[in-house]
Amino acid sequence: MTIVHTEGIFTHEISWCNCPGERLFPASITKPKTAFTFDVLNHFLIDALECKTSAMSFYQKLKRFTNNAFPDCIPDRYQELMRVSRLWRDLKHRKWFGFGHDKEQDPRQGELALFCPACPQPGINLPPDWKTQYDSDTIMRQYVMDGNFTAQHMKMNKPELDVSLADGTGYMVAEKPYQAHLEQSLDNKERSTCSNHRAINAANINKSNLQALVIYDVGCQWSINFQSRVKSSCSLHLPPSLEIIPAVGKFHLAAHKLSCFPRYSLNFIKGAGHLDEVYDDHMRDSNWKKIVNMGERPFLQREVNLPCTSQFLHC
Question: Which position has the higher pLDDT, 89 or 215?
Fold first, then answer.
């Protein structure tokens, strides 16, 4: 069997037994050839939540733990990880909320969701007179948009094969009311008054083959019709006196028109924070992967003298 663990991916001969305390999760129900340890499934769950690690990146990391020079020699169990991690996540959630394997009752709508204690709740984490006690700079609602990233869910040829494990029991709406909402929604294309951004163009493409499209970080365009959409929306109930301050992230603002800078830059918005990011480690790792993969495997197995110069390392 192929055993996927936090320290790598290994092949072992297995003698089946009923020993208590065993912690292997099979990748299939009958005649499994692959199993994941509980530890690696827990690690992937936390990595996905805390580090936003994708399943592909996580499995590539395990392959490099096993053999950093020749990761392609490691068995490919990416699809198995996708399936098992989904089951593992559902089991952990059900256990967390008290729906064990010995209970016949399934969770109902919203019963696998946690209440957010950080959301402003007058009388709970805000005093009842918060409107008069705090000024506008202390209590402010903030929306963060990022337009370079999209979530596209293509319509499936066989939607009956896409089995939901938690349809509406968490934070996402159930499938039937969501489809009813889509049937009533109109797809309006808007002309950009700013630069020719990819995010805006993606919003205006033909979405006949898409089930859902989420686009962010074009604040100059997003804010134009935001108030009117809020007034006509049945799902958003914002105070009419609420002031909306649109902004564009610094990384994306450089691609906007010059007139967007003084109006939407975080440098001129009171209360906005500043931060710097370090990319050295990521670039170093990127160069290492180029070195590993830049030649054929027989070439890499030979003894070669690679030039150790900054020009080579930064190629």
Answer: 89
